[in-house]
Design a protein that fits this description.
Elements lengths: L16 H4 L5 H8 L5 E5 L5 H14 L8 E5 L2 H13 L6 E4 H16 L6 E2 L4 H10 L6 H16 L7 H8 L7 H18 L1 E2 L1 H14 L1 H10 L2 E4 L7 H11 L5 E5 L14 H4 L1 H4 L4 E5 L1 E2 L4 H12 L13 E2 L8 E5 L2 H17 L7 E5 L5 H10 L4 E3 L9 H16 L12 H10 L13 H22 L5 H14 L8 E5 L8 E6 L15 H15 L2 E10 L38 E4 L28 H6 L11 H18 L9 H10 L4 H5 L6 H15 L23
Parallel strand pairs: 1-7, 1-8, 2-3, 2-6, 4-5, 6-7, 9-10, 11-16, 12-14, 12-15, 13-14, 15-16
Antiparallel strand pairs: 8-17
Length: 742
């Protein structure tokens, strides 16, 4: 069974509740059919998480278990919410509310404001940056454009972490956050910003969440009214929830537990905005009866891309890394990722443009190719290179498709043709729906061939061409459809922001690429100082940069290229080096990628408090230090032993030899290298610690949950000097973590 990524744009609506489940893999089906109680879905990149949760909602609705109006599905972008609404509509579950946190809160605030506060609700600020600028002037603080943007983001962070201006300096210190200016000065500006809003009777988007939380906390009658409306909650991208959003979710829920959350700690890339994976990682602690489903079957990417992605995260450290998901590709083999080094940025851009042109010539559509970079300022050189190569492109994050002037104009003309087409000479020769659309749009400048070059004319043509392609797809799916039916479909898509594909290579930042995918992805500018970015200094910040690159890698279905340049401009000093994250991954830089490592989480299902206890490694909030001399440890092998290589060892050599002999037997049984059972350093750490209990063994670095479940009883028996009767290393002993593996 597969979760195809290239399904029809207009699939037939399933004819029954059971039909909704067709095509789901076992883990996705588990998500879809577990409709009561808390459910946590750990979903790796490309594993069909949106498919699983939309089919869950649709199955519940079609089976009569859920009422559409009682379900609230929340996510983080209007695009994701629109896609969810579109999928639900295609599954026969229209009427379900799928919104962003802000959108859902705003609707509730607008409805309850007269009752909770009285009078007219304050006006909502569309953009706060102008008010921040005025607040800075009031505080006599001079800011350039970059500082203004950074301080605006800092105010947003303060509000989603529920930090008031007076507490800002202390909150920054506690969070280990680097303020863009002196914290006292930022707190002063933040206070001035809040005062300006009060003076003008305005609120910002963060206030929407804060005020909704305040209303639900203070007015129990209103809270109960909301809870009576919504009985069932689904939260997508749960690793990105902020403390404020989590508080709002708790108020929506009340004392109920019909909640399904979906996320992947390995894709946490927005912590700078206040997002935290802690709520995802502690879900089982807060909901002991939760069902946990792990999706690791990757339907998006080839084995070669998945191999690189797994290798990239295998080097990660920190708490989120302890929950990383090891993906298993379900697709046919593809080409190996390509690594390229260039002398300078223009050469890198030109080389990338040439490879893109070759891919297009080989049959890969331009709309299925993306160039991803760390910061938006990097786009200009690639825009120029693609234009010089005659390759069409589009910038991600530009104006929404249905808000473009030409798309609005096309909608008006198509609606008019649908009403009065019988009297329109343009349609006299049109034989079917696509030809009718081409005839109407030809009056706006659409032609069968694109105009030469780039710029506004080409952008306009691309928008109209996207509408023509949509009409062709619609007619293939519904041969009897009329122009009026197409207009209704466009209205539905505009409401859901479910835009058709525009044919052109996508240029986007790594952050903007989250949630998207392409046949071919070019990751460019992968140098130290850019990936990781120069201002990422703490271990947590560095690990987030690694996860950001992981997100970029997992956007690719088949073709993946990674490149960097040694200098910024031609003739410049070659002072740059490739990103540290590529060490051990690209040829000639160390061990191969993709090996299963301690801490990875396999696919499967865990149910409630009766399931085997989760063994977690302790959180290391301080640098690792040698337990003998106290020196800070940085070498991975030394950190595993928790001592310097040359410090005195407490190794029980006889125990170490018995462990090595046992490991050799296990490796021979499963036909894998010995290090796949335990590395030498892990066996040394065990032989030095001589654990006598499960807890003592579980905290040894290198003994992850999977290894503990599989080999823990054997290792503890060997440490106790017992003779083994039979072996559990063949999978017959311990706790089976993944039922699908048996």
């Amino acid at each position: 069974m597969t979760a195809a990524t290239h399904s029809s744009l207009f699939p037939p609506v399933p004819d029954s509740a059971d039909g909704v489940l067709d095509g789901l893999d076992p883990e996705q089906r588990e998500v879809a059919t577990t409709l009561h109680g808390p459910v946590c879905v750990l979903a790796g990149a490309g594993t069909g998480k949106t498919r699983a949760i939309t089919h869950r909602i649709a199955y519940g609705v079609r089976a009569g278990v859920l009422q559409p109006a009682s379900v609230l599905a929340v996510t983080f972008t209007a695009r994701a919410a629109g896609e969810m609404r579109g999928r639900l509509r295609q599954l026969g579950a229209g009427g379900v509310q799928a919104r962003t946190f802000h959108s859902a809160a705003l609707r509730q605030l607008q409805f309850f404001w007269p009752k909770a506060v009285g009078g007219e609700m304050p006006r909502l600020l569309e953009r706060k940056i102008q008010v921040v600028s005025e607040a800075a002037a009031r505080c006599r603080i001079r800011l350039d454009r970059n500082e203004l943007r950074d301080l605006t983001s800092e105010i947003e962070w303060s509000k989603v972490t529920q930090t008031v201006p007076a507490d800002y300096p202390a909150a920054v210190r506690k969070a280990g956050r680097e303020a863009p200016r002196d914290p006292a000065e930022v707190g002063q500006l933040y206070a001035a910003y809040e005062q300006l809003k009060r003076d003008r009777g305005t609120i910002d988007f963060e206030d929407v969440l804060l005020l909704t939380v305040g209303v639900l906390q203070d007015r129990h009658d209103i809270a109960e009214q909301v809870r009576a409306q919504y009985q069932h909650f689904v939260v997508d991208e749960y690793q990105d929830v902020s403390p404020l959003q989590q508080r709002l979710l708790e108020l929506w829920l009340g004392d109920r537990d019909n909640l399904c959350v979906v996320g992947d700690a390995g894709q946490t890339i927005y912590s700078f905005t206040g997002a935290t994976p802690d709520h995802l990682l502690t879900f089982r602690t807060r909901h002991p009866n939760a069902t946990v489903v792990k999706l690791v079957r990757d339907y998006r990417s080839s084995p070669q891309v998945v191999h690189l992605a797994n290798g990239l995260l295998s080097q990660a450290r920190g708490r989120a890394a302890d929950y990383r998901l090891e993906l298993v590709s379900q697709r046919a083999a593809g080409p190996e990722p390509v690594y390229a080094e260039y002398t300078d940025e223009p050469a890198e851009a030109e080389g990338t443009a040439r490879r893109i042109r070759d891919l297009i010539a080989s049959g890969v559509p331009a709309g299925e190719i993306a160039v991803l970079f760390r910061v938006n300022a990097q786009s200009e050189v690639y825009e120029q290179a693609l234009a010089d190569a005659g390759v069409p492109y589009q910038l991600r994050g530009a104006e929404r498709f249905f808000e473009r002037p030409e798309v609005r104009e096309a909608g008006i003309k198509l609606r008019g043709a649908a009403r009065f087409g019988a009297n329109d000479a343009l349609l006299d020769d049109a034989m079917d729906l696509p030809s009718e659309v081409r005839a109407v749009l030809s009056d706006m400048g659409w032609t069968g061939e694109p105009p030469a070059g780039s710029g506004a004319v080409r952008d306009r043509w691309e928008s109209l061409a996207a509408l023509v392609r949509l009409a062709e797809d619609f007619a293939r799916a519904r041969p009897q459809a009329t122009l009026a039916d197409l207009v209704a479909e466009l209205d539905e898509r505009a409401s859901a922001q479910h835009a058709p594909t525009v044919e052109g290579v996508t240029l986007a930042s790594l952050h903007a690429a989250k949630g998207l995918e392409w046949d071919a992805v070019f990751l460019v500018g992968l140098t130290e100082g850019m990936v990781p970015i120069t201002y990422a200094r703490t271990d947590e910040q560095i690990e987030e940069e690694r996860r950001l690159l992981y997100v970029g890698v997992t956007r690719a279905r088949r073709h993946l290229a990674l490149s960097w340049s040694l200098s910024r401009s031609p003739g410049g000093r070659a002072s740059r080096t490739a990103s540290r994250f590529l060490r051990g991954l690209r040829p000639g830089t160390g061990a191969a990628a993709g090996r299963r490592t301690p801490g990875t989480v396999s696919g499967g299902v865990e149910r409630g408090a009766g399931a085997a206890a989760v063994v977690r490694r302790p959180r290391h909030r301080t640098p690792a230090r040698c337990r003998v001399c106290g020196r800070t440890l940085t070498d991975a092998g030394e950190m595993k032993l928790m001592r310097c290589e040359d410090c005195p060892s407490e190794l029980d050599e006889a125990l170490y030899e018995r462990l090595c002999a046992w490991r050799a037997e296990q490796a021979a049984r499963v036909r894998q290298p010995a290090y796949c059972v335990f590395t030498d350093k892990t066996l040394m750490a065990i032989a030095e610690a001589v654990p006598g209990t499960e807890a003592e063994l579980a905290v040894i670095s290198g003994v992850g949950r999977r290894k503990f479940d599989r080999y823990g009883s054997d290792v503890l028996a060997i440490c106790a000097g017992e003779e083994l009767v039979g072996a559990s290393g063949d999978g017959s002993g311990g706790t089976a973590e993944n039922s699908s593996e048996k």
